[in-house]
What we know:
Layout: E1 9-15, E2 48-52, H1 60-63, E3 67-69, E4 89-93, E5 97-101, E6 107-111, E7 117-121, E8 152-159, E9 165-169, H2 175-182, E10 200-205, E11 211-216, H3 231-234, E12 243-249, H4 255-269, E13 277-283, H5 290-297, E14 306-308, H6 317-328
Parallel strand pairs: 1-3, 2-4, 9-11, 9-12, 12-13, 13-14
Antiparallel strand pairs: 1-8, 2-7, 5-6, 5-8, 10-11
Amino acid sequence: MAESNFVDYVKIYCRSGKGGRGSTHFRRAKYIPKGGPDGGDGGRGGHIYLRGNRNYWTLLHLKYERHILATNGGHGSAKQSTGKDGEDRVIEVPCGTVAYDAETGEFICDVTEDGQVVTLLKGGRGGLGNCHFKSATNQAPRYSQPGEPAQERMIILQLKLLADVGLVGFPNAGKSTLLSVVSAAKPKIANYPFTTLVPNLGIVSYRDNRSFVMADIPGIIEGASEGRGLGLRFLRHIERNSLLLFMVPADSDDIRKEYEVLNNELVKYNPDLAEKNRVLAITKSDLLDEELKEALSKELPEGIPAVFISSIAMQGITELKDLLWKELNRETFHEVERIVHKNIDVNSLVFDEDDLVTPVEADDDDDDFEEYEEYWEDEEDTPTK
């Protein structure tokens, strides 16, 4: 996917439909001189839903449709006729999309499965017609209920990639190279920092026609949790991964220190990430001989499975796949179910000029609606002079 086509967060304006007004109407027939009230109810306003769709991989389609408006409910009419319900709007989003309130940063909902439907905004209920208010002491009520107002909200949608293994490392650690070797993905590879500007997904084939999904996340630098580099924009994608694969080059000055820096940035961003399973891969190990590998093994972080690999020389790739598969199947549940989404700080988000959305003024279609209706039922029943 082209970098310009990958959109993982967008701000949209949503407004449900308002309920239709109930009718104040009295039945007048030729042989029924006192027909009584027969005003119908108003129709409900349209709802706004979020629906997961596995055929979407990005929020690009919402970048060009920033105003999602449901229609209003129709007004009630004579003969106890109920007004037409407003048309609902369904927002198709890729699986892994999280919705937040754009003003408060409050978490609203999380869409993780294909076909999952979440009600984002409810339409207003329609008002009751005057037929509901008749009684023995009030046989001719000349009033009805107005419909409930619409709900409006500015929404931030964030896409958090669903993957089994997430690659975590500094720029130029060999993440994109590894993804290109173990899968059919073609990420951009070059010898300069921040070559990867958008996350890339690849399906890694394993034994007996089994497979798992690997995600290449743009490089993390120290201070990423505070907004340095591409930090806050892409750290959220790591939350979805069941297993974290930390990648540190063999030519680093201190492998343990680099690992601790990466781990600290993740924990600062979301403390729940400290509980995720992890594997350490020492990349570019074709520069090392067996003696150096043995010496470096003693300095690696304790309690974390580690493997020496070289994507270019295809060394240790099979061992890495075996280790990843073993760690992925250690738990009987999926880590996505354990994610606790926290409210976001909307002031820390930086939106482009294209992301600015303004509310849409509602059309007041009640101006021409009569306070009190009194019509003849049929033309033949209309009295003659």
